[in-house]
Amino acid sequence: MAAGDGMAIEHGAIEHGTGLADAFARDPIPAAAGIGLRHTHYGDFLNGRPATAWIEVHSENYLCPGGPRLATLEAIRRHYPLSCHGVGLSLGSAEGLDTAHLALLRSLFDRFEPGLVSEHVSWSTTGGDYLNDLLPLPYTEEALDTLVRNIGQAQDALGRSILIENPSSYVTFAESAIPEWEFCAEAARRSGCGLLLDVNNIHVSAFNHGYDAQDFIDAVPGELVGEIHIAGHADTEWDGRPVLIDDHGSTVKEAVWDLLDAALARIGPKPVLMEWDLDLPPLDTLLGEAARAQAALDRLGAEPRILDDVA
């Protein structure tokens, strides 16, 4: 997933409103298609009830002490199950996690009671500075130990289990000795978290690094997967070589739809999120992509299942 949508981190207590926020229950996320809520579409949700099973927001966009952004999310949250997706926790950081950041996230989650919480297998902080990117990890035992330790710290601080997302990547480390799918699965097993399977990221990374995306799908322990992401990507070129960029700025490519079908056929129905962060289209376009994802779920012939926090 691409970091973006104006990530704003303000280190101060999140003020709780009265009434509406106090009434939120932790609505579980159904095994159905949802969409990412972005500011461009606030008006559509405030003036109507767009037909989506659930919504997801970037957690860091709501770490503010009040104001219209939180009030808008409160109004929309009243009508939809909510998932919170982080882009700034830096789970792979050797420096450990920012306890102030964790405290803000805990306050946000306690207020809005998301059915699922997720973050990335990446790092994005150094020396107290936040980098607006999701940087890759070397897939080594040392990095795995660090990731597991940080996931444990996060889950303890947040008082809930989380999901971790496989990243898109454009470089690899010579030191890497563990396949990415094994690295992510082992981190989940050791820490007790779940997996967020981003099939667009799988396609992008497989193309860029020359492996078969189906090998990733076949190796993922389906019982650990709590959510799936799909998105568009850009076809570009670097140094005369074709490269795919996970930019979340277009409709989903056919190869990714095929990979979604393969993932669902193997692991069964899961919540599927349509992400779009760059050059946002009219809401109907986003809902149309989500409808195609729902059709993929419907082809499984199963009733929608409800998924709450992973155990």
Quaternary: single chain
- Would you state the CATH class? Alpha Beta
CATH architecture heading: Alpha-Beta Barrel
Q: How many individual helices?
A: 9
Gyration radius (Cα, Å) is: 18 Å
Principal-axes shape call: globular
Low-confidence stretches: 1-22
Q: Mean pLDDT score, rounded?
A: 88
Percent strand: 15-25%
Determine the structural class based on helices, strands and strand pairing.
alpha/beta
CATH homologous superfamily designation: Divalent-metal-dependent TIM barrel enzymes
How far is the N terminus from the C terminus? 24 Å
Please give the number of β-strands. 14
CATH topology: TIM Barrel
Helical percentage:
25-40%
Overall number of structural domains: 1
Lateral arrangement of strands in the main beta sheet: 2-3-4-5-8-9-10-13
Major beta-sheet overview:
8 strands, parallel, barrel
Taken in chain order, the helices and strands follow as: EEHEHEHEEEHEHEHHEEEHEHE
Your description of this structure?
- It is a single chain.
- The chain is α/β, with parallel strands linked by helices.
- The chain has one domain: TIM Barrel.
- The chain has 9 helices and 14 strands.
- It has an 8-stranded parallel β-barrel, surrounded by 4 helices. Strands 1-14 form a two-stranded antiparallel sheet. The chain has a two-stranded antiparallel sheet with strand order 6-7.
- Helix 7 packs parallel to helix 8.
- The chain is globular, with a radius of gyration of 18 Å.
- The relative contact order is 0.16.
- The N terminus is likely disordered.
